[in-house]
User: Which sequence fits this backbone?
């Protein structure tokens, strides 16, 4: 078990600008020692045969390719606005979120 002294914990608390009582320093010394031991155990795992990765699961792009369609297959403005709850001057109407200021 990694032993951290009260002085080391007090130094770390000072660097983090955290004020701690003597009882809190004693308690934190034990808790930090457990955390450091756990991190050390993870570091002992041999992982030479495991390649580095950015994500544990494979990521794939699920979007469709961007394809230009002929004009007769595109939505008209009226078709696009047909499902809108509100419209004004041929555009979607949405609630104002910014003031005039």
Assistant:
């Amino acid at each position: 078990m990694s032993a951290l002294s009260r002085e080391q914990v007090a130094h770390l608390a000072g660097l983090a600008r955290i004020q701690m009582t003597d009882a809190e320093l004693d308690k934190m010394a034990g808790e930090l020692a457990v955390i450091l031991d756990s991190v050390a155990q993870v570091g002992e795992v041999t992982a030479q045969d495991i390649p580095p990765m950015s994500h544990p699961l494979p990521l794939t792009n699920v979007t469709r390719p961007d394809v230009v369609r002929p004009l007769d297959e595109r939505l008209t403005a009226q078709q696009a606005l047909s499902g809108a709850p509100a419209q004004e001057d041929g555009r979607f109407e949405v609630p104002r979120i910014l003031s005039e200021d």
